[in-house]
Amino acid sequence: MQSTTITGVHTIGVHVSDQNKAVEFYVDTLGFEKRLDATISPTMRWIEVAPPGAATTIALIGGDDTPAAGGETGVRFTVPDAGAEHDAMRDRGVNVGDLLRWEGVPPMYTFEDPFGNGFEVIEESR
Predict the structure, then answer these.
(1) What is the DSSP string of 5-37?
(2) What does each C-alpha distance from 118 to 36, 42, 75, 94, 99 come to in angstroms?
(3) What is the pLDDT of residues 15-48, one digit of tens each?
(4) Tens digits of per-residue pLDDT, 75-89?
(5) Relative to the CA of 4, which of 29, 31, 52, 64 has its CA 20 to 30 Å away?
(6) CA 53 to chain CA centroid, nearest Å
(7) What is each CA distance from 32 to 12, 35, 48, 85, in whole angstroms?
(8) The pTM is what?
(9) 10 Å Cβ neighbour count for 73?
């Protein structure tokens, strides 16, 4: 078996069509922290946001050569109480899906950012 020196996941990239609007949504609406915001070209910034205390960040990728935003990201966030966070996100105007509850599976739901990027929120196992 091959060995690796990879020790974790630092950043997951999410394509957005407007980086300023993305920062407003992720920081002001969701309550994430802005960890990095650096200009890397005349038309693009490198921006990383994350839930408070999280090790892995979300890079809000935008600029002239950025692929179209929208679609399932494959990113799953965890929360201690999916029902409470679902209600709080809905109250803040976030486009949330139904809260799903199945026998033997943690409660979960989906939400979208303003660019149509899809995420899931799953209740942490206790």
Answers:
(1) ------EEEEE-S-HHHHHIIIIIIT--EEEEE
(2) 23, 29, 8, 12, 15
(3) 999 999 999 999 999 999 999 999 988 878 999 9
(4) 999 999 999 999 999
(5) 52
(6) 14
(7) 14, 9, 10, 14
(8) 0.85
(9) 18
CA 83 – CA 93 distance, rounded (Å): 16
36 with 82: CB under 8 angstroms?
Answer: no
What distance in Å separates the CA atoms of residue 78 and residue 107, rounded to the nearest whole number?
10
Find out whether 29 and 112 touch, Cβ atoms under 8 Å.
Answer: no
Look at strands 105-112 and 95-96 and give their pairing.
Answer: antiparallel
Whole-angstrom distance, CA of residue 90 vs CA of residue 112: 11
Q: What value does the mean pLDDT take over residues 49-72?
A: 87
Strand pairing class (57-61; 11-15): parallel
